[in-house]
């Protein structure tokens, strides 16, 4: 579906990518036992500190990627809605005063 239009209500690869970009840093921060250590040291800082500082930068990059993915997906959804034929009047099943 690359480059095409996207019907509303469909989970697209771009939306899945955006969700993973948001979820990955959240899981990385919550999983404290994976980085709760003093070694190795980098520039005199224990692993615990430089991991968190690195995670700030990585999170920023992933949030920008998620934003761009959602923006592209929304544009495709708008194109789909604009290209879809308009629903005929009176499709609700009957006349209002009858």
TrEMBL record:
The keyword Transmembrane helix applies. Keywords: Membrane, Transmembrane, Transmembrane helix. It holds the Pfam family DUF3311. InterPro entries: DUF3311 (IPR021741). The chain crosses the membrane at residues 47-70. This is DUF3311 domain-containing protein.
């Amino acid at each position: 579906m690359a480059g095409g239009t996207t019907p509303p209500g469909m989970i697209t690869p771009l939306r899945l990518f955006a969700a993973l970009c948001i979820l990955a840093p959240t899981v990385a921060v919550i999983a404290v036992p994976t980085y709760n250590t003093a070694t190795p040291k980098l520039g005199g800082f224990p692993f615990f500190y430089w991991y968190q500082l690195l995670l700030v930068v990585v999170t920023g990059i992933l949030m920008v990627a998620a934003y761009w993915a959602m923006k592209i997906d929304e544009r495709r959804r708008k194109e789909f809605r604009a290209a879809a034929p308009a629903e005929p009047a009176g499709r609700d099943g009957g006349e209002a005063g009858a």
